[in-house]
Amino acid sequence: MTAPSLLDLDRQALEDRLAAWGEPAYRARQIWEGIYRHGASDPSALSALPAALRRRLDEAFAFRVFEVRAVARSRDGRTTKWLLGRRGEALAVEAVRMTYDRRRTACISTQAGCAMGCSFCATGQMGLVRNLTPGEIVEQVLWVSTEGTLSNVVLMGMGEPFHNYDATMAALDRLTDPGAFGIGARRITLSTVGIVPMIRRFAAERRQVNLAVSLHGATDEVRDRLVPINRRYPLAELLEACREYLATTRRRLTFEWALIRDVNDGIDQARALAGLLRGMLCHVNLIPLNPTRGYGGAASDPERAEAFRRILLAGGIACTLRVRRGIDIQAGCGQLATDVPSRAA
User: Is the pLDDT of residue 261 over 80?
Assistant: First the structure.
């Protein structure tokens, strides 16, 4: 039987366990900082601890539950993707490191698979396998950090973070804890397809983490086809929740838009989007589609993408046309997981 993950303990639970073992309170801080600030991947790396405590930790807990199933690196050296699997299980999740001129960003997963069923997304095409634990979410950051420190984290990998809300928030607490990863909340972005009750809950908690909404359609007819959750939370309801978020937090929202040729990249959709977002404190990220085997659509050509961008700018909507990263290694979420055969150890 696999030992429980030490990473699934929050700080209080770790302190309680050590107290039950009769250890002094400062041992929790040593272990916590050793794991998250110094990347200790097994008890032997915690040299400040007595040998007896290191042995006890080794017997009681696993410091890592994932093994590396595959690693892919882009030709330009700026994008690396890990496929991580839990020992004894067939499931696999993806974590990506993206290097920019001034940022080093981890893109991490919150679920194995996804229940949202977005038609163009490789993860949505595979369905939901299960939620990840807080420890499994933060462990991805530890793996990505093996190639250097990080400046940013985006929860835009496999899964819908708001469909695994409590575990995701616990992981965010770990990422922003000054004694753990110490990443500034404003350097973290959580992306959702638009689960309205969770947007309202997230707003009420007044976290400083950035929120991005995957929109992809400016009319219900188009969005219903691309993002099935729209049938439950149509655009009018979603945008009302977004406006409430803005009023509560006074933080800028990001809207994500995958540009799909002849589906949502036309003048009509651009004008409709500009109308929907007029007056909102927001920014639109336009990203040409990462093609997947399970979806027949293609990325917009550069001319149509630029025309779309210009219409938004003319309508007063701040937007950026993003460059696709890691196309040569299938860096879009779910693509590597569907290519590498799953296995149980």
Answer: yes
Could you read off the pLDDT of 285-318 as tens digits, one per residue?
A: 999 998 888 899 999 999 999 999 999 999 999 9
Distance CA(285)–CA(288), nearest Å, equals 10
Q: What is the rounded CA–CA span in Å between residue 161 and residue 178?
A: 23
Q: Which residues are catalytic?
A: 94, 333
| 186-243 pLDDT, tens digit each | 999 999 999 999 999 999 999 999 999 999 999 999 999 999 999 999 999 999 999 9
User: 202-211 burial by CB neighbour count: b if 16+ within 10 A, else e?
Assistant: bbeeebebbb
3-state secondary structure of 82: strand
Closest by Cα among 222, 114, 234 to 163: 114
| The domain made up of 6-60 is a member of CATH 3.40.910.10 | no
Rounded (10°) CA dihedral 286, 95, 154, 245? 90
How far apart are alpha carbons 338 and 83 in whole angstroms? 10
Structure tokens at 216: 């992809």
Residue 78 contacts residue 99 (beta carbons within 8 Å):
yes
Exposure class string for 245-279: b at 16+ Cβ within 10 A, else e: bbeebebebbbbbbbbbebbbbeebbbbbbebbee
- For 335-344, b where at least 16 C-beta lie within 10 A, e where not — what string? bbbbeeeeee
Q: What CA–CA distance (Å, rounded) separates 268 from 270?
A: 5
Is the four-CA dihedral 203, 209, 214, 219 of positive or negative sign? positive
Give dist(CA 214, CA 242) in Å, integer. 12
Domains of the chain, residue spans: 6-60, 66-339
The number of helices, as runs of H, and strands, as runs of E, in the chain is: 12, 12
Please say whether the structural domain 66-339 has been given the CATH code 2.40.160.60: no
